[in-house]
Specification:
Elements (H helix, E strand, L loop, with lengths): L2 H20 L31 E3 L2 E5 L9 E19 L5 E10 L6 E7 L4 E7 L6 E8 L5 E26 L6 E2 L5
Antiparallel strand pairs: 1-3, 2-3, 3-8, 3-9, 4-7, 4-8, 5-6, 5-8
Length: 188
């Protein structure tokens, strides 16, 4: 190497060192898919609720009607009797802490609403009871899974002999890590 090449090489090393010191690398934590899919209902394309969500009773989707908490769409449940709700099957890590949140609004006569998590056999695992919610209200449920991996998140209400409704939007489910966090098809 000539002395000129050696000097240029030293300058290149110096510049690289200065750039490395001036602009530290930023590490972004790995991002994994949420165990819940379509919690804002924006991907719903018709008024019938569809996968990954499952309807229970009389339910549907308001598309672009201005009833959502955010975005254009939300889910509704409306009836005069019986259970009316929605659910989504998710795979979660065993013995892990999670936080489930959704925004819920109801007619003034709702007294028997439920938001929570069921096990794979649809038995209630953890839930919150709600009544009349005149404005979208965030409901948050913190829970720790058991030894199982399949759960069902749900929201619904018992209509008690008069026209009643519930609207739901903006579900989120956080916790766990990237391993074993995946969507389970609704028909399983």
């Amino acid at each position: 190497m000539t002395s000129k090449q050696l000097s240029l090489s030293k300058i290149a090393v110096f510049i690289t060192a200065v750039i490395s010191l001036s602009f530290p690398s930023t590490k972004t934590p790995a991002s994994c898919a949420a165990p819940l899919n379509g919690g804002d209902f924006e991907a719903q394309t018709n008024q019938r609720i569809s996968s990954p969500w499952v309807g229970e009773g009389r339910v549907g989707v308001d598309i672009g009607l201005g009833y959502s908490n955010r975005g254009k769409n939300n889910v509704w449940m409306r009836n005069v009797s019986g259970w009316n709700g929605i659910r989504q099957r998710v795979r979660l890590q065993p013995n892990t802490q999670y936080k489930l949140t959704a925004y819920i609004r109801t007619s003034g006569n709702v007294t028997d609403g439920y938001f929570g998590v069921r096990d794979a056999q649809q038995k209630v695992f953890s839930e919150i009871k709600f009544g009349s919610l005149p404005r979208y209200t965030p409901m948050t449920l913190s829970f720790r899974t058991g030894n199982e991996t399949v759960y069902n998140i749900f929201t619904g209400f018992w209509a008690l002999g008069q026209d009643s409704w519930v609207q739901v939007d903006d579900y989120s489910l956080t916790g766990g890590s990237c391993e074993d966090v995946q969507l389970v098809p609704a028909n399983n």
